[in-house]
Design brief:
two-stranded antiparallel sheet, single chain, Glutaredoxin, alpha/beta
Length: about 160
């Protein structure tokens, strides 16, 4: 996978309003939490997104940002964002191409959700867009807790947006 300190692969994806957004747009000289989630169909993903929404103001206070990516189409992401009242950007990777680039595991489930859909992944990028933390999962449970990542961002704020 990606080594800490290496540059994150660039991408552009549509958001929940169908506007094309790029990784560079969010990594404007600040740390970024990049979440990959299973999709709107997944109760665990919805729970985790709510937890991130609860601390989003603190993330911004630490001069960082957060975006979340799934294979859901923009309209479904728009509904999810509204239903959960999420304050951060949701991006649609409908063809799974960016997810594959980031090493997100493709689910082998066939009973639930769109196919393909990815398993969760959490990345923290430093102010230069380089990996400071990565966690890939092979199932929906066990993601890094939002408050644990918040502590990492606090350290990064003290170090001018870098982890080391």
């Amino acid at each position: 996978m990606f080594r800490n300190g290496t540059s994150a692969p660039a991408f552009s994806l549509p958001d929940s309003e169908k506007q094309l957004r790029s990784l560079d747009e969010f990594c404007r000289d600040q740390p970024l939490v990049l979440l990959f989630f299973r999709g709107a169909f997944c109760a665990t993903s919805r729970r985790d997104l709510l937890a991130w929404g609860d601390i989003y103001e603190r993330i911004q206070f630490l001069n960082a940002d957060l975006i979340a990516v799934s294979v859901d189409p923009p309209l479904q992401l728009k509904r999810l964002k509204h239903k959960l009242d999420l304050p951060f950007t949701l991006l649609s990777d409908a063809d799974f191409s960016v997810s594959q680039t980031y090493g997100i595991y493709e689910s082998d489930e066939t009973e639930a959700g769109p196919q393909p859909h990815g398993e969760p992944g959490t990345f923290v990028l430093d102010r230069n867009g380089c990996f400071a933390f990565s966690q890939l999962q092979s199932g929906p449970k066990g993601a890094a807790l939002a408050n644990e990542i918040l502590l990492m961002l606090l350290l990064m704020q003290d170090q001018n947006g870098f982890y080391w």
